[in-house]
Amino acid sequence: MTAKLHWFWALLLLPTWAEAAVVVTHRGNAPNTFNLEFPFITDVLFDINTDGTDDFRFTGDYFVAAMRSLGDSRFISVLAVPPDSGGYIVPVTVGSILGADTSFLTGNWHRYTDNSNNPALAGGYGLNDGPSPMQDADAYIGVEFLAADGIHYGWIQYTGYSHPENGLPAMLVPGGVINSWAWETQSGVPIVAGAIPEPGTAAYIGGSAILLWQRNANTRKQNKALQRTPRGLVVSTLGLIRKLFGFGGARVRP
C-alpha cells in the first residue's frame, strides 16, 4: 500500500474510531456486586456507565433474587403467564446482538413495572426462577439505558449460584456473581454480548500512519542531503535536461 493510500484509509476510518467504542469493566478483586448473605437483605444500586445516575437495582433475600430497572432503563426478559404478574430475566448467550431488534432473542425489552397489577409494589423481575432461570446460568443480562444523547445498549455477565462453577444447590442461596459488564458509548448502536473489543485495528492503522509519516520525513531529509553532494548535483542536472528535451520518457508501442 502506498503512503498516500495508507493516509487516505487512516483519515477515512478516524471518525469511526472516535464515535463507537465498547467500555468493559471487570470486577477484579472487588467484592461481588450481588452478594447474598443470609439473613441479610441485598439491595444494590448499579450504575453501568458511572455517570452518577443509577440504572438498575439488584434485590434479594434468602428466598428471592430479583432485578429492577430504574428510570427508562430496561432489560431482556419475559413476562409471567397470568394470573402471575411481573416477569423473569432470561439468559442472553455470548455472541447475541443486543439492540432495538429482539426478534432473534428469547425475551424482549421490559421494565420491571411491566405486567404488574400494582407497579408501585412491583418487586422486580426474578433471577432465580422462571422458564430459564439465571440462577442456573453462566450468561449475560441484556440491558439498555437512557443517557443525555439517547439509548445505549450493554450487557452484564452473571453466573448464578446454582451453576456448576459455583456448585450451590438450586434454591439454597438465590442470587449469583457479577464479574463484568459493558456498554456501547455511541447511542443507538447495538452491542455483542460478551464481546471485548480489540484495539488492534485502530492501533495498527493509526500506528502505521505515524510510522509512514516518520519514514517520509526521514526520506525527504535524506533526499535534500543527497542533492547537496556532487553526485546529487549531477543527477539533478541530468533530470532537468531530460524534462526539458523529453529524454527518457515513456514511448508509445507500435
Structural features, described:
Helix 1 packs antiparallel against helix 2. The longest helix has 28 residues. The strands form 3 sheets. Strands 1, 5, 6, 8, 10, 11 and 12 form a 7-stranded antiparallel beta sheet that branches. A 4-stranded antiparallel beta sheet has the order 2-3-4-9, with no helix packed on it. It has 3 helices and 13 strands, in the order H-E-E-E-E-E-E-E-E-E-E-E-E-E-H-H. Helices cover 24% and strands 27% of the residues. With 254 residues, it is an alpha+beta fold. It is globular.
Keywords summarizing the entry:
254 residues, alpha+beta, 4-stranded antiparallel β-sheet, 3 helices, 27% strand, globular, disordered N terminus, disordered C terminus
Write the layout of secondary structure elements.
Elements lengths: L2 H17 L2 E5 L15 E5 L9 E5 L4 E5 L4 E6 L7 E3 L7 E2 L9 E3 L14 E2 L11 E10 L2 E11 L15 E9 L6 E2 L7 H28 L2 H16 L9
Write a brief structural summary:
By secondary structure, the chain is of the alpha+beta class. The protein is built from three helices and 13 strands. The longest helix is centred in the C-terminal third of the chain and has 28 residues, at 200-227.
Overall pLDDT, averaged? 75
- Oligomeric status: single chain
Which segments are poorly predicted (pLDDT under 50) over 5 or more consecutive residues? 1-18, 200-213, 248-254
Number of helices: 3
Helix fraction, binned, reads: 10-25%
Q: How is the main sheet built?
A: 7 strands, antiparallel
Tell me the radius of gyration.
Answer: 29 Å
Shape verdict = globular
